Amino acid sequence: MNQNQGQRTTTITIMFTLAFIIFAIVTIFITNNILDNGNNEYIRARINLYIILSFSTGLVVSIIGVTYLAREYRKDLLGFNPAEIAILYSENKSIIEQLNEGVISLDLDYHVKTINDAAKRMLLINDTNLQEVLDQLDFKSVIVNRRQISNKLVEVNKEQLLVSSFPLYSQGKVIGGTMIFRSRLEVEMLLDQLSGYRKISKALREQKHEFQNKLHVILGLIKMKDYETVNSYINQNIYHTNLTSDYYSSRIKDDQISALFVGKDIQSKEFDTTVQLSSDSYLSDTHHPVSSEDLIIVIGNLIDNALEAFKGKNIDNRKIDVKVLEEDDSIKIGVSDNAGGIDPRVKRTMFKRGVSTKKGDNRGTGLYLISEIVNLYSGQKQVQSSARKTYIEVILKKVKKWKWK
Length: 405
Hints:
Elements lengths: L2 H35 L3 H36 L5 H17 L3 E6 L4 E4 L1 H6 L7 H6 L3 H5 L5 E8 L2 E12 L2 E11 H40 L3 H25 L3 H13 L6 E4 L14 H18 L9 E8 L3 E8 L6 H4 L18 H11 L3 E6 L4 E8 L8
Parallel strand pairs: 6-7
Antiparallel strand pairs: 1-2, 1-5, 3-4, 4-5, 7-8, 8-10, 9-10
């Protein structure tokens, strides 16, 4: 039922109800006059019956009209009653406000129907520039042309965002459009974390093959009945494995970061390089508000860059020194390598998106992410480079700005 039909139904029901009410009032008035002018019991009985029938008929018609109207309104409300709609509205509003993504919905007249706090922060919306921001968004193609977009990169108020949009439907008709916004930086950070986990996974697979080779050695020695050598070989390898694991876990209390160092230690063998954590390093298991995920991005990318720097170079005693030192108000991370210096031209722009000294596609993201994390925690970064060594230091303060996460 459309809006006009609903209005007509309401009008008809009200008219019938008012008609019978007026009829009843008139009847009462006439009855009073008759009763004042006569005492005929027969007339009195007929009039009473007439009054009862009039009120009963009016009441029945009113009940039928109200019931019919309630059913029609329930159809318009998709079968929900007002209490259920209130609950659904509260749930919907709460869910939208809890989303990490920004959400904006407009109706057919391009009036804002939904906008959450995440959208206001991402798009830098305030009380004065809402319409200016909306003018930069192509809602017309969404509502009029029914255009659906998935993860399109757009720039709004100098912020790069991934936007998905789609029209809103009710009973097969377009009633508006919605856009969902995500931070490009957050997506890149997630991809970088995934890349780091893949590298660790690859290193663990290589360790598995190495372990299988050691088992073959043990099996061979047992078949040769050289039990003394078997005992010595096993003890030597257990000691080395435990020593490495204990070295990291005694200094790095965060299990995720400790596991990262174990993985990087294994990965470094691929580059014939040694990754060494300084003996005075320390990181607690809780270092709020600096998250473990952000530390993984910073430490992982700095070590990866140092490892990549050794590629194609004939350098003896390849070594990467890492220092992680947590203080009351900050976390300091330093990584140095002896793979040679950085081109001064690259050094000035190395933390910008797309700048890299390495060849290949999809480069120049790691250091850019580090720079963004430094800004997130109001930190500092510095690069020292000579003909033989490079040292990069990052300081993250334990004060976190707002983040789209």
